[in-house]
Write a structure and sequence with these properties.
MoxR-like ATPase; 323 residues; 5-stranded parallel beta sheet; Rossmann fold; ATP hydrolysis activity
Amino acid sequence: MKQNLIRNFQEHFTAMEREVGKLIMGQEEIIRHVITGIIAGGNVLLEGAPGLGKTQLVKTLARVLDLSFSRIQFTPDLMPVDIIGTVIMHKNQGELGFSFEKGPIFHSLVLADEINRATPKTQSAFLEAMQEKTVTVGATSYPLPDPFFVLATENPLEMEGTYPLPEAQLDRFMFKLKIFLPELNDLSRIMDLTVGGSREPLVKKLATGEQILQMQQIAREVPVAADVKHYALKIMLATHPEHSRLQLVKDYITCGASPRGAQSMLVAAKIRALALGRYNVSYEDIKVMAYPCLRHRIFLNFRAGADQVDADAIIEEILRQVK
């Protein structure tokens, strides 16, 4: 029975990866992590330059998973009501009434494009709804779809006119992924698909929202050995200057990862284990998931910027030292 569950999970996961990869080329790790985030019930912050396929990725995922999709372009004049919706007044048979008109957040897959271009007020309203998975207007609460997943993007090149997300808001994202330009061969395939006259491959619906929820439940039940759990916690604690013996951490980090970082590592590691056909979490699973789970939860000082030290370099050193 258990072996069948593992095999079915692995087959579904691999099929989803392969199907999305028909249209999103050269981003296999990004696809794998985004699917992991969806199954985990988390949200992903994606950092990358414009034109690297972020919107196409979410649209393709929505088609493969048969989920509703919306894209919200964040701008300085975007208001909370533009995202969550608003109460409108109407007249029915001469009597005034009120009804709630849902905003674009009421979809299963939401792309929050350039989230750091909106004002802190709008960011806060969106991220609160994202975390609570409900929208409250007046005295009434409206649940968001289940499953619900946000992929938010930031552009690392344009800092002018942006409002960087504060630490507490960043912590609400399960992963932060960095998307880079594909290799030459992948770029050539993309050119063939987009400007070379090749027909765009058709992607099949391989899952439903209900099946995603079932995969979430299977992943939750994967056991984690005490030593593996402690390993994840030691990595998380090692990001804090007051708990770490690493000089690199003491020199460059002002604030380390929260317990959510360890929670995210463990949940993501369970899904990785299942995707590889295992029902037990290994140290290697934790190591692989440490980067996307911790890089946005580690806050560096000005000296780190001056010395060109980034969060990934510190995580790499922590993983070398923590046993």
